[in-house]
Write a structure and sequence with these properties.
With 126 residues, the protein is mostly beta strands. Helices cover 14% and strands 46% of the residues. The strands form 2 sheets. Strands 3-4-5-8-7-6 form a 6-stranded antiparallel beta barrel. A two-stranded antiparallel sheet has the order 1-2. Strand 7 (102-113) and strand 8 (119-123) form a beta hairpin. The chain starts with a helix and ends with a strand.
Amino acid sequence: MDKDSQLDSQLVSTLSPKKGVETTINSSDGIDMISHGSEFTINIMTPVGMKLMSKTKFIGYHSNNLILLEVPNISEDKKNAFFQEGFLMNVRAISQKGEGGIIQFRSQIMHILSGVIPMIIISVQG
């Protein structure tokens, strides 16, 4: 299975640093390997081809197969351009559990919450 197919089917890959072996697991199982407050690297490409790479923090996992993220510390113009419902993003994190596997998957922005505690809610396949 090529890398794009893996991302499109929203699977999570982990890489064991000791053995150099790649294992593919369901994304909901992979999320369990990520600690709250962990850093995520996100890549977003808009439908017109503009790209953003940023870092943000993992807040938590909702039982409806949703992930809650902090809004990255970027300009309002970039927030308005890149963080829109329906946009796709590639997400990458390093597990702080086990052997420090790399967790990566493709997700869609479902909601953007503003107010006192702004958050981004993204999808994850169960």
